[in-house]
Design brief:
about 100 residues
């Protein structure tokens, strides 16, 4: 990968991580406030769950963006390595859902 492609990857990943963490924090904060004031337990629970899902999905999305950018840069070693990481993450999720 050339310098421009690496810089683009870092920019995309930085934006993704910032937006993911900010969205998760916002959902969790709003859900926590609603839960604490007993406004609407269903909405509060939904917001808290959504915040946790966004927080957990952010690293997975980071890996997916990395695969796409490495493929655009034709860096096949990192495409393969990152796909292996994505495979491990997906197997972990499937096993967690199966046993959960």
């Amino acid at each position: 990968m050339n310098e421009e492609a690496l810089e683009r990857l870092e920019t995309h990943l930085g934006t993704l991580l910032f937006v993911g963490v900010a969205a998760a924090a916002s959902l969790l904060a709003i859900g926590l406030v609603l839960w604490m004031v007993n406004a609407n337990a269903t909405v509060a629970t939904w917001l808290l769950n959504a915040g946790l899902i966004v927080l957990m999905a952010t690293p997975i999305l980071r890996v997916i963006v990395s695969v796409v950018e490495y493929a655009r840069g034709r860096d096949w070693f990192f495409v393969t390595t990152t796909l292996a990481v994505l495979g491990v993450l997906l197997v972990s999720i499937v096993l967690a859902l199966k046993t959960g």
